Amino acid sequence: MVDRLKRLYESWEANPNIGFVLMKGSGKAFCSGGDVVTLYHLLTEGNIEECKVFFDTLYKFVYLQGTYLKSHLAILDGVTMASGAGISLTGMFRLATDKTVFSHPEVQIGFHPDAGASFYLSHLPGYLGEYLSLMGDKLNGVEMFACHLATHYSLNARLALIEERLGRLTTDDPSVIETSFSQYGDLVYPDRRSIIHKIEVIDKCFSHDAVEEIIHALEIEAADSYDEWCAMTPKKLREASPLSLKVTLRSIREGRFQTLDQCLTREYRISLHGVSGEVSKDFCEGVRAWLVDKDFAPKWDPPSLEEVTKEMVDFYVPPLISEPELELPTASRTLCMTDV
Fold first, then answer.
1. For residue 235, what are the CA distances in angstroms to 29, 34, 218, 291?
2. Half-sphere exposure in the Cβ direction for 95 (13 Å, CA)
3. Number of domains forming the structure of the chain
4. Of 74-88, 156-170, 272-286, 318-332, the least confident
């Protein structure tokens, strides 16, 4: 699917008769990121080369979309998770609805938030990106709009009107496109129980440099405030892959100071190391436990945060030695964007 999208986007970008591109899902979901089970079966069959091709294709498409020369609009109606979020959130306009469910649950299956996630999550307000990447919690459309993951919000019932309005446009002016989105927008605020209202506590606890310190800060907060959320959060963190938690925290922290192409290059290294099983087979074990056998009892390796060494985490991020790096057309696309 991503390979076809990439070829289509390249042809559309070069076509002067096309003013902008609209992306939407074909059913109840926008895109659920259901690629992990396929990757699992490829790995169990010993076909790691096809996994490498998958990540190479996916990340190159995300970069193309993030540097697209035409206006890009994504209607995130329904489930928008993992790579399903990555193929849309680097674009110019992102419309969330009352049906939207966003999440990056990768650490729960022994992986890391990828497909550009370390770029857009790390640029969220405060340390919300660290929270979402380590916890894998869901956001609804209102919350996505509140934290700027979505640029617009509208009720699902208005989507037909929005598409009709966009279909009548005779200009590719981004300001006119944005006005068309905004015309059917709704003024909304997160529910009082929303995680958005806990941003001060999130900043206080998730700003620490180590996962163990984050958990300790949450436990102290829970003891001082008797807050149920603070009590439950450390428990959920301890259920995730310890190695994935530490690799993910480092990835998000580095993403704060990197461009999209630098984030994708790092994510590619982490992904290849993750599926190779050289340090740990947590990815296959997590997918097996949660999505294949569904016994919901993964046996992580290492089994605890204390047993994850700095050397293990360091293995995932440095430049690849035995494999070629992700090659992105940064020079040519930067030049094209400068010329526009």
1. 29, 26, 10, 21
2. 27
3. 1
4. 318-332
Residue 324 confidence (pLDDT): 86
State the amino acid at position 324 in one-letter form. Answer: P
Please give the residue range of the domain that contains residue 133: 2-339
Phi, psi angles (nearest 5°) of residue 138: -90, 145
Is 339's pLDDT higher than 60? no
* Per-residue pLDDT, 340: 39
pLDDT at res. 217: 93
Chain-centre distance for alpha carbon 45: 27
The reported pTM is 0.92
Closest alpha carbon to 277 in 15, 40, 6: 40
Distance CA 27, CA 77 (A): 9
Residue 84, pLDDT above cutoff 70: yes
Contacts for 330 with CB less than 8 Å, ≥ 6 apart:
261
CATH of the domain at 120: 3.90.226.10
State the alpha helices, DSSP H only, in the chain.
Answer: 2-13, 36-44, 48-66, 83-86, 117-120, 128-135, 141-146, 159-167, 174-183, 199-206, 211-225, 228-239, 242-255, 260-276, 282-287, 310-316, 330-339
d(CA 159, CA 146): 20
